[in-house]
């Protein structure tokens, strides 16, 4: 079982620029925890803080019950895999994997046994004598992971390790990386800007923005119940409708222009709000239906096998809808249609102060 990680009010600055702002976070033992956010949000800086490569202006870092804030990297016992893998080109696979153990002065028999165990774990048995240049990108990544795990780290830190792989190999390595992490049982913090990686791999995800954590939760919570406008707009795709929170037949709703629509969440009547609707929460039909329904004209229809993605122009703006295809019944560009959604679909939140 891995070890817990706690960050308390961590602050980091680069000169006059604040990279992390009073950031607090807790990672559970054995968890696969993802840091997700746009470039420059501070996620790699945070990973370097945990590793001990980045000095703090304030706050604490705890691994388990130990305060490691002032400990140098070599005394924290964490393994790190960089985006470039950072393998030694002049060393073989087994020499790369055993490098950290050799530096620690481990006995030769112990080193040999541990290297063999790690190569078996990452499924590279039989390639011990190869050099990095003789390996594929995915194999090089697995060597880097084996090297990080060989020293029996208390925690594994991964800084966008899949970004250099092609799309097909990246998909394969997501599954492989999760398998390795589960087998090793090590607490893992994974940095990525790829939403599919974070939502598909993380036990929990922290969405970061401008040096702060906007929300922490399971992938489902992050996608289905975003707590801030940034998370709602950053994760996945959404139709954003702005209007005024109001009442509708004794329930809550949103007034957009001359129309009022039922909604399940509102903050206060007459408050300016934004409504976020996922494309899969809307439907397209030839005939009007009860509930939230509005007429429009199909601008575009993109066939994607089992799914069709529509863009429909309506009086409240252009809407994106993603629904299962219906063969010959599918709508086409120029068709008059109706678009609607359930009263409990989407979510309302106050309009951001920046607009």
Layout of helices and strands:
Elements lengths: L4 E10 L2 E11 L4 E5 L6 H9 L6 E6 L2 E2 L10 E4 L11 H5 L1 H5 L4 H14 L15 H14 L4 E5 L7 H18 L2 E6 L2 H7 L2 E6 L2 E6 L1 H6 L4 H6 L4 E10 L2 E6 L2 E4 L9 E6 L4 E4 L6 E13 L2 E8 L2 E8 L11 E6 L5 E4 L5
Parallel strand pairs: 3-8, 3-9, 6-7, 7-8
Antiparallel strand pairs: 1-2, 1-4, 4-5, 9-10, 11-12, 11-14, 12-13, 14-20, 15-19, 16-17, 16-19, 17-18
Mind explaining what this structure looks like?
The chain is an alpha+beta fold and 355 residues long. It has 2 domains: 5-233, Rossmann fold (3-Layer(aba) Sandwich), CATH 3.40.50; 237-350, OB fold (Dihydrolipoamide Acetyltransferase, E2P) (Beta Barrel). It is built from 9 helices and 20 strands. The protein has helices at residues 43-51, 93-97, 99-103, 108-121, 137-150, 167-184, 195-201, 219-224, 229-234; strands spanning 5-14, 17-27, 32-36, 58-63, 66-67, 78-81, 155-159, 187-192, 204-209, 212-217, 239-248, 251-256, 259-262, 272-277, 282-285, 292-304, 307-314, 317-324, 336-341, 347-350. It has a 6-stranded mixed sheet, sandwiched between helices. Strands 13-12-11-14-20 form a 5-stranded antiparallel sheet. A hairpin with a 2-residue loop joins strand 9 (204-209) and strand 10. Helix 5 runs parallel beside helix 6. It is elongated. The model has no long low-confidence stretch (mean pLDDT 90).
């Amino acid at each position: 079982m891995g070890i817990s990680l706690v960050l308390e009010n961590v602050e980091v600055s680069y000169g006059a620029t604040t990279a992390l702002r009073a950031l607090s976070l807790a990672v559970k033992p054995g968890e696969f925890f993802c840091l997700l956010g746009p470039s420059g949000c501070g996620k790699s800086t945070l990973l370097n803080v945990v590793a001990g490569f980045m000095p703090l202006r304030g706050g604490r870092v705890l691994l388990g019950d130990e305060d490691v804030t002032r400990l140098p990297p070599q005394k924290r016992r964490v393994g790190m895999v960089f985006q470039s893998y950072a393998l030694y080109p002049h060393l073989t696979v087994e020499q790369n994997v055993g490098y950290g153990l050799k530096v620690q002065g481990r006995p030769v028999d112990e080193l040999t046994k541990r290297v063999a165990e790690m190569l078996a774990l990452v499924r590279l048995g039989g390639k011990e004598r190869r050099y990095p240049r003789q390996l594929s990108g995915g194999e090089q990544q697995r060597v880097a992971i084996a090297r990080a795990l060989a020293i029996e780290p208390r925690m594994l830190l991964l800084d966008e390790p899949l970004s250099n792989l092609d799309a097909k190999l990246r998909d394969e390595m997501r599954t492989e990386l999760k398998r390795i992490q589960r087998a090793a049982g090590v607490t893992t913090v994974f940095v990525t800007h790829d939403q599919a990686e974070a939502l598909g791999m993380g036990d929990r995800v922290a969405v970061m923005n401008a040096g702060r954590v906007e929300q922490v939760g399971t992938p489902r919570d992050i996608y289905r119940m975003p707590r801030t406008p940034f998370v709602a707009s950053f994760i996945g795709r959404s139709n954003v409708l702005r209007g005024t929170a109001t009442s509708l037949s004794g329930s809550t709703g949103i007034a957009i222009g001359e129309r009022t629509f039922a909604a399940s969440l509102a903050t206060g009547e007459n408050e300016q709000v934004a409504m976020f609707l996922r494309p899969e929460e809307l439907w397209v039909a030839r005939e009007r239906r009860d509930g939230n329904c509005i007429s429009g004209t199909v601008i575009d229809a993109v066939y994607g096998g089992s799914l069709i993605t529509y863009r429909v122009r309506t009086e409240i703006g252009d809407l994106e809808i993603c629904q299962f295809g219906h063969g010959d019944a599918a709508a086409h560009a120029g068709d008059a249609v109706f678009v609607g959604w359930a009263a409990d679909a989407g979510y309302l939140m106050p309009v951001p102060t920046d607009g």
